[in-house]
Amino acid sequence: MEHLEDTWAETAVGAGMGALDLRRLGDTTFEGDSLPMPGGRVFGGQVLSQAVLAAGLTVDEAHAVHSMHGYFLRPGDASKPITFEVELLRDGRSFTARRTHALQGGAPILSVIASFQLPQAGPEHQVVMPEVPRPDELPSGVDILAPFAGHPTADFWLESAPFDVRHVEGSIFVKPDAAPKAYQTAWMRVRQPIEASDLVHRALIAFGSDQVILEPALRRHGASWATPNMSFASLDHAIWWHRPARADEWLLFVQDATTAQGGRGLTGAWVFAEDGRLVASVAQEGMLRMPHLESAR
């Protein structure tokens, strides 16, 4: 099993890093490929990370991306390349801003504005990381999904998803939380060490954040990723990077589901490094359609 896990990890991390290997078509135009998806739709976190990376490739590397706000506009086709067109909005002394459109067939599937900043001194404070079990005390996603190898969805998470996710309150990959709650804590990291720039690590944090960000809303309403006939989609996504961090080291996502109404749910996360530094904050509104709630009435 250990050899198989290593093979899966190598394949998955290779696929994830391959998606971030953008081809430059011009000074502000890039092209990238997608992870193979069981339903054929582009994974939102992947295209977010690609859009951030494309923007960053037009900015002096001394500026670090500190925030990103994006809207998912159309489903993307994972079998076709994505073109990224970057618009130079501002080049200031401290702050630089870029807009990136991710396009397929000439139509935008995602629009992102990202802001970059030169390092500077200022006041410091943060919330405190909660005490939770360490990641080596928790089952990995591979442990949970390996018995289902051969199923297309399980195979995607085993062989194509570059992140190891370990849920403190128990995974909802295959069954709902036995005691539904509107919060969760989960450890995440890239499944193998990688050598990459700070920009790529920040892009990977955006990539991984979309993998778990809606889970507290599913958990709150007694759903799992395997709930029949449920549909969901990311509508918009925001991330603020506060401090440098590596995506191949454990990050703790402390999450909640603030509200759900009108077929939409709002979720958020604080992201901590193992040493307790708050390295990012994330928010997303997603579409949630849960027929199992209607049938239970």
Question: How much helix is in the residues?
Answer: 10-25%
* Neighbour order of strands in the largest sheet: 1-2-4-5-6-3-9-12-11-10-8-7
Shape: globular
Number of strands: 12
What name goes with the CATH superfamily? Acyl-CoA thioesterase, double hotdog domain
Instruction: Report how far the terminal alpha carbons are from each other.
Output: 43 Å
Q: How many alpha or pi helices?
A: 7
Instruction: Provide the CATH architecture.
Output: Beta Barrel
Order of helices and strands: HEEHEEEEHHEEHHEEEEH
| Percent in strands | 25-35%
Helical/strand content category: alpha+beta
User: What profile does the largest beta sheet have?
Assistant: 12 strands, antiparallel
> What is the fold-level CATH name, i.e. the topology?
Porin
Quick one: CATH class?
Answer: Mainly Beta
> What Rg do the Cα atoms give?
18 Å
What number of domains? 1
| Mean of all residue-level pLDDT scores | 93
Indicate the low-confidence ranges by residue numbers: none
Description:
This protein is of the alpha+beta class and 297 residues long. It has a single domain (2-120, 135-295), classed as Porin. Helix content is 24%, strand content 35%. It contains seven helices and twelve strands. The protein has a twelve-stranded antiparallel β-sheet. A hairpin with a 4-residue loop joins strand 1 (23-24) and strand 2. Helix 2 runs antiparallel to helix 5. It is globular and about 50 Å long. The termini are far apart.
